[in-house]
Amino acid sequence: MQKRPELGWKKPIDGLASRLHWHCHFIQKFESEHQMQWQHVNKAYHHLHYPEQHCGLSIETRLSRWKNAQTGYPLVDACMLCLIKTGYINFRMRAMLVSFLCHHLLVDWRLGVTYLARLFLDFEPGIHYPQFQMQSGVTGTNTIRVYNSVKQSQEKDPDGKFIKQWLPQLSEIPKEIIHTPWVLSPMEQQLYQFVIGDTYPEPMVDIEETGKIARDLLWGFRQRLDTRQEGKRIVAKHVRKRRSTSSMSKQSNA
């Protein structure tokens, strides 16, 4: 901290301090509500039920294909394979994996949380469980983010280098199409020696359709009275109110 006043050090040190505060906040939150390892921190979501059948697929099938990188969405599958092999992916890709499972596949977060915990080399329960619930959209206090995996793929891996590294069966597909290989015509598939559904799975769901279903479900549930009441309880317990300027001024003059 001694270097903070020096030119060029303020921003990185402030960034580090912010991460440390963020880390400690989540650890403390987990210690005070450790049941979030198994239960919704917002108790109203105990009444949220996920369908046994979704897009013609059972919960077991949806969960299995997600775990085994067989979703048909290249970036999702590449991230899962990278995580299985190395034990690490960045924060954005972790959030996308959770969103795909809980939003597009409509699988309860509790069915996937332990699987990813076992894969992460940097697994920290105080971070993992609150973040998993936050990214799955069941806290009632955080913004619900339904990730579009194609959009994420085009933005974060525009040339398809990461995808090709972990999905070599797509290595001959042009970068303009690698994010959506299912659009290849039969003639193009023959040209690239690629057969959708054989060389690589067809998309297991239509994310445009499932994204809308998830948003309607989660935002609708968030408007319930019990959800909002629980949200207020969580904020009151875990968010420290900032002291007003006037009150601080009075204390300094006392």
Low-pLDDT segments, ≥5 res: 244-254
Give the second-level CATH assignment, the architecture. Answer: Orthogonal Bundle
CATH superfamily: DNA Cyclobutane Dipyrimidine Photolyase, subunit A, domain 3
C-alpha termini separation = 30 Å
- Classify the beta-strand content into a percent band: under 5%
Q: Which word captures the global form?
A: globular
Overall SS class: mainly alpha
**Helix content bin:** 40-55%
Strand line-up of the largest beta sheet: 1-2
The SSE string, one letter per element, is HEEHHHHHHHHHHH
Instruction: Give the CATH class.
Output: Mainly Alpha
The number of distinct structural domains comes to 1
Task: Note the total helix count.
Answer: 12
CATH-derived topology: DNA Cyclobutane Dipyrimidine Photolyase, subunit A, domain 3
Record keyword descriptors for this entry.
254 residues, mainly alpha, DNA Cyclobutane Dipyrimidine Photolyase, subunit A, domain 3, two-stranded antiparallel sheet, 12 helices, 2 strands, globular
